[in-house]
Amino acid sequence: MEKNYNVCTGCGMLCDDIEVESEKNIVKKVYTACRVGVAHMKEGRENAVYQVDNKPVDEATAISEAAAILKNAKNPLIFGLGTSTNETQKLAIELARKTSATLDDTSSFCLGSVVEALLQNKFKACTLDDVRNKADVTIFWGADPSNSHPRHLSKYSYFPRGTEKQRGWEEDRTAIAIDVRKSHTAKICGNNFFQVPPGGDAEFIDALIAGLSGKLPKTSYNFPPKRILELANILKGAKFGVVFVGLGLVYSLENLEPLFRLMDALNAKANFHLIPMVGHCNMRGFNENLFEETGYVNSVKFEDGAVKHGPEHSIVEALKAKTVDAALIIGSDPLSSLPRSIAKNLLEIPVISMDPCETFTSRSSKVYINTAISGVESGGIATRMDGVKVEFKPVVETKRLSDEAVLKKIMEAL
Fold first, then answer.
1. Of 52, 89, 124, 363, which has the highest C-beta tally within 10 A?
2. What's 112-276's CATH class?
């Protein structure tokens, strides 16, 4: 019997095998999804909420007020979009051009540099389907998918029976965790867990490169050379290896140069690929769409037909320097996620918040538009953590507008 499967937009994996039961336009039961996905798919609400100064208004008033804020601003900030569709992200880029805005997303302080390097072909890439079917050695570096992406190991990276890995984790696959603590993923990796101190990843990389070259590996924190040599031997034997890069590794390195050297060293001895452990369902989509338009993945400023790029155009630096005078926040909550010393500067400018959920940012916004959840209440296309585009349809109907519909209305009002 044919089944209708849905796509879960709860994380960057975009699992496409989800079954749901709904009643009176409300999701009642979710099958196959992980705990993150189940909670995400059940978030929907039917009624729309529009607020100005925390007071209920109609749709037209909220759109008009939002357009007025952007029109009167000399340097507005547009931020977020990690949970919006590719179609919405392209509209946001167009809106940023139209309003001479600063445009950024969470990748400027997480995995953006890794995605940018992939788009510049500085790393060898592969898909999650390749991992499931071919990978014999996987490294989770500074990542704990057992908690951040709960189906990652079971659907793709360790437990599944792939077309070329029919004997699965018992005989065909080796999983390795490198982290500052013994995470749930590290426990699954057993003896293949390598604990490094905070900030020690660059040194560990140097030692591992030495081990791959047959030299005696050394670290200032006295990691046993024998263990690094054992790891190097496992990696040398990989027929299809994958490094899953998490925030832990990115935050530990001053730049990606050590990672470039490691991947070159690995590919001199074996066959290794890299995938960033993207959290938001479409952060990679934003990076790719902006890269296609500007050559950059985040932190840009549109001005007089030109595009400027640099850390000063990231949300962190722009708020710190108080160079933006209004903000449109889409599907993000910077008042919760950024340091208070920086985020508090948002309270000094008019903010428009578009979000399916009520957040600290939405409560403090001049205008709040309660939008539909992408993948649950609205359809479109998103880009998976490995760069594969995934199309999805809404699971239930809602009176709430999608991010795309709201942006279209704001642009018309402008």
1. 89
2. alpha beta
